[in-house]
Amino acid sequence: MRYADDFVVGFKYRQDAEQFLRDLKGRLARFSLELHPDKTRLIEFGKFAMVNRRARGERRPETFDFLGFTHYCRTTRTGGFGLGRKPIRKRVNRTLLRIKAELRRRMHHNRYEVAKWLGKVVDGWLGYYAVPTSFLSLKRFTRRILKIWCRILRRRSQKDRTTLATVGALAHAFWPPLRIRHPWPTRRFAVKHSR
């Protein structure tokens, strides 16, 4: 039986992270288990990573994928550190390919029915991926769906004159509004005591 969950562990000092990794490998070895070598790595990430890497003449900090999101270091409007999240590119492309295949299958269906179906698809996507800092990625995703849909509708006939504005109007009528649905972590985890 093979089963394990993914996890991310953060440390302030590199030597603590290296010690933890050694200890974890040793602990797992006692149960005849091992870490996947391609999925296990130490990266410099966080508040001081951008400054430290810039001082060494290196590029921006590495990113990591976790729970469907690519996590990256960003600069906030006030110039401080911020955690950025956006959907993993591979997942976006895979989802768009599935949508394209289904739109081809529904090519000759009623446009309004297809718009309603796409609205449900977009709603499901937003339900998971509409987190703070991901708005531009979500906008690109919906824009790509519109372009795919427009191209497929044009292939129905040589005389078809469907424009991006036409499918945009359908999307506006049947799709949920594009907005961030999940609160910022600082708001979500704010605890208020009755004291």
- What is the CA–CA distance across the termini? 50 Å
Q: Largest beta sheet, briefly?
A: 3 strands, antiparallel
What is the radius of gyration?
22 Å
Broad structural category = mainly alpha
Number of helices: 7
Helix content: 40-55%
* Mean pLDDT level: 88
Low-pLDDT runs: none
Strand/helix succession: HHEEEHHHHH
Strand content: 5-15%
For this entry, what is the oligomeric state of its chains? Answer: single chain
Number of strands: 3
| Spatial arrangement of strands, main beta sheet | 1-2-3
Q: Characterize the overall form.
A: elongated
Q: What are the key terms here?
A:
mainly alpha; 3-stranded antiparallel beta sheet; 195 residues; 7 helices
Notes on the structure:
- The protein has 195 residues and is mostly helical.
- The protein is built from 7 helices and 3 strands, in the order ααβββααααα.
- It has helices spanning 14-29, 49-55, 89-105, 111-129, 135-154, 164-174, 185-188; strands at residues 64-66, 69-75, 81-87.
- The protein has a 3-stranded antiparallel beta sheet with strand order 1-2-3.
- α3 (89-105) packs parallel to α5 (135-154).
- It is elongated and about 65 Å long.
Could you write a compact summary of the structure shown?
The protein is mainly alpha-helical and 195 residues long.
